TrEMBL record:
Keyword hit for S-adenosyl-L-methionine: no
Pathway of action: Cell wall biogenesis; peptidoglycan biosynthesis
Family: Belongs to the MurCDEF family. MurF subfamily.
Record key words, sorted: ATP-binding, Cell cycle, Cell division, Cell shape, Cell wall biogenesis/degradation, Cytoplasm, Ligase, Nucleotide-binding, Peptidoglycan synthesis
Domain Mur ligase central: residue ranges: 96-275
Keyword Cell division: yes
Gene name of this polypeptide: murF
Pfam hit, one: Mur_ligase_M
Residues at which ATP binds: G97, S98, N99, G100, K101, T102, T103
Protein name: UDP-N-acetylmuramoyl-tripeptide--D-alanyl-D-alanine ligase
Native organism: Flagellimonas aurea
Phylogenetic lineage: Bacteria, Pseudomonadati, Bacteroidota, Flavobacteriia, Flavobacteriales
Length: 424
């Protein structure tokens, strides 16, 4: 079956499933493989549960006409996504960066959807499987699709751009994330910049932060760009007003009061505002969209529980985002501040140095109580309270409950520090 023929089948059954536990009636099941599973073995089960067809790549499992044999299921899924992207008239906005991708994507979606029929990456499905699934969620009436792209090594963004073929792009920042896979900060800059390289090669448009020296330098000689700035008047002006605890800003004389903590969210808002202006969304609608957005999924959430005012930022962490979170927390007004931070993953040979740097910063910011959690933080040279595991922290807090305070909780996803809430 050719990709064109498969696409015709997809138009008749426009829902993709890759997990037999989530089969919907008349979907197309793609029998993906992984290190510990082989989707081909579950293809017949998918049909039995209601799938219209199953796409497989091992001939021994082809036992009926509804089992479609291809050379490689993953590659076929990716080619189908690109074919559908070309078939659709929707404009594609691509998004990557070291920090803030998902929040920025959701803000852009909130703003753009005020005027256009818009879809966006669900959750953080931003890899070689998630990007195709996002593209295949584009409907006939979709006008704009916002596609988040994640990466932890070179050439990954280049590959995702070749699948999505974006019309527009934005990079949130270049930070100390996935240093192990990228080979250091310079590797991060090179890897994330693959989005710029793709857009420039196609003479497509780029949104950027003109206050970011790296981005400004990389785009110095490129003309199809639109930037925002809080200081450079040749770009779209957005003024930072403050954060206490939420970010507030001003654009064209209009004040916008967000529900986002942390100055680091200022540029995320700016990107959404700039894109809204480019696509002619009225400023009143932009303001409504930004002010109505509330973060979820452990991303800079402000919560209250049992007398604690909590900044829960436990979805992910790297040295750049950790440093920004600590510095922002130090500026927040509170009588008492407690810090609980967990290990940052994927730092490779720099792990010991980076964890020591964060431990030193935490100590120098003079919070009332500080708890470091995880094997990397446990290995730092510091007088701060440190625990090798979450269970060790939990045992301590059970015996020695925290005093009521403003509380920042931050760590990499694998640390799952949102579990602290159960201990309070």
């Amino acid at each position: 079956m050719t990709i064109k023929e498969l696409h015709a089948l997809f138009l008749e059954h426009p829902h993709i499933c890759t997990d037999t536990r989530k089969i919907t009636k008349n979907c197309l099941f793609f029998a993906l493989k992984g290190p510990n599973f082989n989707g081909n073995k579950f293809a017949q089960e998918a049909l039995d549960k209601g799938a219209a067809y199953a796409i497989i790549d091992e001939e021994e499992f082809k036992t009926s006409e509804r089992l479609v044999l291809c050379d490689g299921v993953l590659e076929t899924l990716q080619k189908l996504a690109t074919y559908h992207r070309k078939y659709s008239s929707a404009k594609i906005i691509s998004l990557t960066g070291s920090n803030g991708k998902t929040t920025t994507k959701e803000l852009i979606h909130a703003v753009i959807s005020k005027k256009y029929r818009t879809i966006a990456t669900q959750g953080n499905l931003n890899n070689h499987i998630g990007v195709p699934l996002t593209l295949l969620s584009i409907k006939e009436d979709t006008e704009i699709a916002i596609v988040e792209m994640g990466a932890n090594h070179q050439k990954e963004i280049e590959f995702l751009c070749s699948i999505a073929q974006p019309d527009f792009g934005y990079i949130t920042n270049f930070g100390q994330a996935h240093l192990e896979g990228f080979g250091g900060v310079e590797g991060v800059i090179k890897g994330k910049s693959e989005m710029y390289d793709h857009l420039i090669s196609q003479n497509n448009s780029i949104f950027f932060n003109a206050d970011d020296g790296i981005q400004k330098e990389k785009l110095a000689n490129y003309t199809k760009k639109m930037g925002f700035s809080s200081s450079d008047h040749q770009y779209y002006q957005i003024k930072f007003l403050g954060v206490d605890p939420y970010v507030s800003l001003e654009v064209e004389g209009t004040q916008i009061n967000t529900q986002l903590v942390g100055k680091y969210n200022f540029t995320n808002c700016c990107a959404a505002i700039l894109m809204g202006k480019y696509f002619n969304v009225p400023l009143t609608d932009i303001k409504t969209a930004i002010e109505s957005y509330r973060p979820e999924n452990n991303r800079s959430q402000l919560l209250s529980k049992n007398g604690f005012d909590i900044v829960l930022d436990a979805y992910n962490a790297n040295p750049t985002s950790m440093r920004a979170a600590l510095e922002n927390f130090s500026l927040m007004k509170a009588k008492r501040k407690t810090l609980i931070i967990g290990d940052m993953f994927e730092l490779g040979s720099t792990a010991a140095e980076e964890h020591q740097s964060i431990a030193d910063l935490a100590e120098n910011l003079h919070f009332d109580q500080i708890y470091l959690v995880g094997e990397n933080f446990y290995g730092t040279k510091t007088s701060l309270s440190k625990f090798k595991s979450f269970d060790a922290l939990k045992e301590h807090l059970t015996k020695h409950p925290l005093e009521k305070a403003s509380l920042l909780i931050k760590g990499s996803r694998g640390m799952a520090l949102e579990r602290v809430l159960e201990v309070l």
